[in-house]
Amino acid sequence: MYIIQHRTIFFWITGIILAAAIGAVSFFGLPLGIDFTGGSLMQIGYQNERPVLTTVETQVATVPVGAVSVRAVGERAVSIRTRTQTPAEHEAILAAISSNASTTELSYTSVGPSLGSQFAMKALWAIFAVILVIVLYITFAFRKVSRPVSSWYYGLTVIAILIHDLIIPSGFYAILAHFTGVQVDALFITALLALLGYSVNDTIIIFDRVREHLAHNEKINSKESFEMVVGKSIDETMTRSINMSFTVVLALGALVLFGAAATRDFALVMLVGVIAGTYSSILLAAPLLIPLANRFAKK
Amino acid sequence: MIRFRVFAALALIVGFLLAYFVWATEANLMSPYRFKLGLDLAGGTELVYTADMSQTPESERSDALSALQGVIDRRVNLFGVAEPIVQTEQASTLSGTTEDRLIVDLPGVTDINAAVAALGQTPTLEFRLATTTVVGTTTMAAFASTGLDGRYLSSAALGFGSGATAGLSAPQVIINFNTEGAKLFEKITSENVGQTLAIFLDGQPISTPTIQEAIPGGQATITGKFTASEARDLVRNLNFGALPVPIALESSSAIGPTLGAAAITAGVTAGIIGFAVIAIFMIGWYRLSGLIAAIALAEYVVFMLSIMKIIPITLTASGIAGLIISVGMAVDANVLIFERTKEELREGKSPREAVHIGFQRAWTGIRDGHLTMLISGAILFWLGTSLVQGFALIFVLGVLASFISAVSLSRVFLLAIVPEQGGRTWHFLLGSGARNS
Predict the structure, then answer these.
(1) Nearest C-alpha in A relative to B319
(2) How far apart are CA B74 and CA B71, in angstroms?
(3) CATH of domain A39-111
(4) CA–CA distance, B98 with B118 (Å, rounded to integer)
(5) What percent of chain B has pLDDT over 90?
(6) What does the alpha-carbon distance between residue A213 and residue A210 come to, in Å, rounded to a whole number?
(7) Residue pair A284/A207 in contact by the 8 Å Cβ criterion
(8) Do A109 and B252 make contact, defined as CB atoms within 8 angstroms?
(9) Which CATH architecture has domain B125-244?
């Protein structure tokens, strides 16, 4: 019952964390990668020592491809981002870079600008669609539960939770991007969508408990308050919520520490998101039902 | 009880067989069931072209796109790549794209510029009718599209006709249309006798013969001012690449073999370590139930790997990440059931009854949770790009498999060994945490 009694404190803590995350996004911004803006990204490995980044930048700039950004990758590689290159420009840049060093092109990706903007639209639609479908499903799954709050409130609470679960990893990514130079790519969107599905799963388990208790109370004609029911449900499902997330955290931890470089940032965002999702399921989802119940309770 | 023991034994045997299948097919380099590695793991090039359909009527776009696919397929095969994949993506509101695309995967090819050059040299062939318009005092020759183009070409051949002027045999290019093209050609020639039917190659008129009479049979002869070798090149290019519609390179990516190999090693390491720590945690916390969950989880993994080999699903770095994360999530349903079982035990139920009720009570939550995860997985798959789809497919499969493994496997295993009545030992074995409950 601890969580329910002190729910105001947790609402405040959440508010502060959310404000910090929104602050990070608006202050540092979320730099969009070539998946969204279009452009070319090449990763170059050096046989020997990697030259100074500004040297590489000057070399690339000999080919007129607009603004060039060069980042260090690991010990002996760099990634170079420019606007979408033509095959001829690509060839010229490769020649310029290898003029004074032995290099290999580890990877090259080029996205046309129209493909990029289409992906951005699709990503927004996908996030919107996931939230909508989940809310509808929950309203449907909980349709028999209408006292003391209508099943719509379960759905609406889930929207609030899902938005929370999108903002926290985004804030984290904004900070990560600011300090390491990573950019928002398709995998980041993938992480957000997977997190939506995952986080709601956690919330459902608690709501499921509430549903079960309410049905039981109705049957035995118990006058237990809604607040008590919610508190009991949280307590009963807490170990499970934490253990469940812990196993996912273990899997993600293994991915961050030992997994492929290509999926490291992805795993990191998922890791933050899973922790935020568990937090929001236990400390926000069910407690949020109570003020709703007090306000809109069917008399 | 006997029934559950038989089922449990069967499940174990199937698990071992699948594990052997996974191991044996991977050890045998010639096996058709080896993992299909995506370009990001095996190294290779992906080229995405957009087809310019602005001149193609809506109703013919789908045909034009598949004709385009066939042509590029032939080109790629000429290029000499093992297991190339040429796919198309049609514009539709459902797929969320507004352009018709052609996606070419070339495993093992890392020289992207060479690949682009080899695929890019593709002529477009078109027959146009000359219409003369008079502007002021000058007569302008304009050409109207007839709708007859490279799409209707079935083959081209080199021939030598009697040169009217030089007396030498002049090289000719003989074009054979397919049935549809033959009909169209006959119709055009019969309706426009006396007019000029120009043959355009890559937008340039290469021959402007006058129609003498209707030509049935679907064969046209181009007698341009060719040298023998020019004619031979044109025949080859027409045979292997007369494009029905123009295409433009939209995006491309190439991954070198070193990066891919490192990603595989890292993925396998992360997978093994991830599985091990999850198993250790489960056994440590949930004791006997945890051990059973770990066994069910191992079965889950071999099952997933087998499915991925049989379908087959192309393995990518993001797919491997999806698999590892799904292992963590697959535990969920088990945890839910065990926690429920424990509660029932605390209320004084017998171990076996507790397991039964635990499964029953956990069911609605498991169902709702898995369904919402499936929904987000399906939408992820729709979102597109191969990178995202690799993850989404495995995520969806993983959710389905975890559903089955938790609801059936763990249950069968537990019911196979938990006795009807049990003392403190069983309470301990089915309990959890540091306390003795």
Answers:
(1) A263
(2) 5
(3) 3.30.70.3400
(4) 27
(5) 6
(6) 5
(7) no
(8) yes
(9) 2-Layer Sandwich (3.30)
DSSP E strand boundaries for B136-272: 138-149, 153-162, 169-177, 197-201, 204-207, 219-222, 247-255
Residue burial A89-119, b: 16+ Cβ < 10 Å; e: rest: bbebbbebbbeebebbbbbbbbbbbebbebb
Quick one: closest CA in B to A129, which residue? Answer: B379
Topology given in CATH for the domain delimited by B41-122+248-253: Alpha-Beta Plaits (3.30.70)
CATH 1.20.1640.10 given to domain B2-38+256-430:
yes
- The answer to whether domain A2-33+115-296 has CATH 3.40.1280.10 is no
pTM (global) more than 0.90: no
Interface test with A, best of B101, B265, B325, B435 (most A CBs within 10 A): B325
Range of lowest pLDDT (A28-37, A122-131, B151-160): B151-160
A85 token code pair:
């290159």
CB pair distance less than 8 Å for A134 and B96? no
Question: Residue B115: pLDDT band by 50, 70, 90 thresholds?
Answer: confident
Chain A residues inside the 8 Å CB shell of B112:
87, 90, 108
Query: What is the three-class DSSP state of B226?
Result: coil
Domain ranges of chain B: 2-38+256-430, 41-122+248-253, 125-244
Residue A121: count other Cβ atoms within 10 Å of its Cβ: 12
Picking from A247, A249, A271 by the largest number of B CB atoms within 10 A of its own CB, the best residue to mutate is A247
Q: How far apart are CA B238 and CA B185, in angstroms?
A: 17
Dump pLDDT digits (tens) for B299-326. 889 999 999 899 888 888 888 888 888 8
Could you state, in order of their start, the residue ranges of all structural domains in chain A?
2-33+115-296, 39-111
Note whether B149 and B174 are within 8 A (CB).
Answer: no
